[in-house]
Amino acid sequence: MDELNDEERAIVEVVRVFVAREVLPVVQELEHANTYPEELIGQMKQLGIFGLTIPEPWGNVHVSTRCYALVTEELSRGWMSLAGAMGGHTVVAKLLLDYGTVEQKNRYLPAMSTGDLRATMALTEAGGGSDLQAIRTTAIREGPQYVVNGSKIWISNARHSELIALLCKTDPRAEPAHRGISILLIEKGPGFSVSRDLPKLGYKGVESCEIAFDELRVDASALLGEEEGHGFAQMMRGLEIGRIQVASRAVGVGRAALEDSLRYAQEREAFGKPIWKHESIGNYLADMATKLTAARQLVLYAAGRFDSGVRVDLEAGMAKLFASETAMEIALDAMRIHGGYGYSTEFDVERYFRDAPLMIIGEGTNEIQRNVIARQLIERNPL
After folding, report:
1. Residue of 235, 291, 253, 315 lying closest to 66 (CA atoms)
2. Is 47 within 8 Å of 18 (Cβ atoms)?
3. How far apart are CA 1 and CA 25, in angstroms?
4. Which of 215, 226, 363, 379 is catalytic?
5. Do 324 and 250 form a contact (C-beta atoms < 8 A)?
C-alpha cells in the first residue's frame, strides 16, 4: 500500500469494506446455488470498479496497475468469481487503449468505464488450448465486411458481455501462422450464439461458455487497429495485464484461506491448548503467510513494471506461476488445519480449494508460463 497515492488507498479501502459488508454475508448462498451475482455486480459498477484502468477522457477514475491488483485481491478474498467478472473486461480495455482507433475508443470505452457495457475476450478453442496460433476460427474479408465462422470455449461472462475481443484468423494461409491472426471487436448479432454453459468444479456464479459464429457478418471497422495480422502480438500484450489480474485473484484466495486458518487455529483447542501452539499447525501457518507475502510482492513488482510501459511477460508470468501455485498450497494447508470442517460445505475452506486450481490453468497454464519464463530469461541473458 505504500506505493499508492491517497486516492488509490481510499479506493482499496472502499472495496475492502464492500467485500466485508456486502459480499461475505451472501457468498456461500450464491456460490452453492451457482447464482449469477446480479446485485453485487451492480454495486461494483456503482463503485467504478469496471473503469479503474480506463483513463480520461473516457473514464473518471484511473488507477495504477498496483492499485488495480490490490482491488482484485480484495474482491477475490471475498469471492473469486467477482474478480473474474472484471478480468477479461480489463484486458479488452487495455487492448482498446493500446491498439484501438480513435473511433473504437470513443465508441466503447466510455460505457466500459461505467460497466454499462461489459466486455470479454474469446481466445481458447476446443482443439487448441494454450496453443493460440493453432486457432481455427476465421474472419474472411468480403468487401466492406468480415464473415466470421468458428467456435470458442471457456469464455467467461459470455452471456453478460456485449463486446467480445475475438482472436481469429484473417489469413488462414499465412506463414508463420501468427502473421495471419487478428482481433475483431464483435458485438452480438445474427450468426452469434452461446451454445452452452460449461459445468465447473469452482468459479461458480459467473458463466463460462462455449460460443459459436456461423456466417456472422461484421463491418470491417471491427478490426482492432488499422491493419490485419497484428492480433497475436496485441493479445500477448493484453494477456500481461490478464496474468497480473489472475495472479492477484490467487493472492486473494490464498489470503482468505490464511485468514480463516489463523482464526480457526486460535479458536480450536486440542490436548488442552489452541491448535496453533502445536508445532505442526504453527509451521503450516508460518509457511502459508511467508509464501503469500512473497506472492503479493511478485504481483506488485510485475504491476509496477507494467506501468512503466516495458514488456513484462517474464514478470507477469512469474507472478502468475508463483501466486497460483501458492494459492493451491495454502488452500490445501487450510483444509488440513480445519480437519473435517475444512471438507464441509458449511465452511468456506472447501470453496477456496475448488477455486484455486482455476488460476493454475487460466490465462495460460502454468506449464506454458514456465516456457514463457525460460524463453524470456534466454532472450534477456544471451551468450
Report:
1. 315
2. yes
3. 26
4. 363
5. yes
Joined together, the cell numbers standing for residue 82 give 467477482
Contacting residues for 32 by C-beta, under 8 A, at least 6 apart: 204, 345
Q: What is the pTM of this model?
A: 0.96
Cα–Cα–Cα angle for 205, 20, 51, rounded to 5 degrees: 65
Pairing of strands 163-169, 119-122: parallel
Q: What is the pLDDT of residues 282-318, one digit of tens each?
A: 999 999 999 999 999 999 999 999 999 999 999 999 9
Q: Which residues contact 180 (CB under 8 A, 6 or more apart)?
A: 169, 170, 171, 172, 173, 174, 228, 229
Whether the bond between 357 and the residue before it is cis, its omega within 30 degrees of 0, is no
Q: How confident is the model at residue 125, as a pLDDT? A: 94
Residue 86: CA count within 13 A, CB half-sphere: 35
Dihedral sign, Cα of residue 359, residue 365, residue 371, residue 372: negative
Length of the chain: 383
Q: Is 363 a catalytic residue?
A: yes
ω into 382 cis (within 30 of 0)? no
Name the helix (H) or strand (E) containing 163: strand 163-169
Does an H or E element contain 5, and which?
A: none
Instruction: Examine the pLDDT at 132 and tell me if it is beyond 80.
Output: no
Strands (E), 41-197: 119-122, 138-142, 145-156, 163-169, 181-187, 192-197
Angle of helix 6-18 relative to helix 38-47, nearest 10 degrees? 160
CA 97 to mean position of chain CA atoms: 18
Q: Is there a contact between 169 and 136 (Cβ–Cβ < 8 Å)?
A: yes
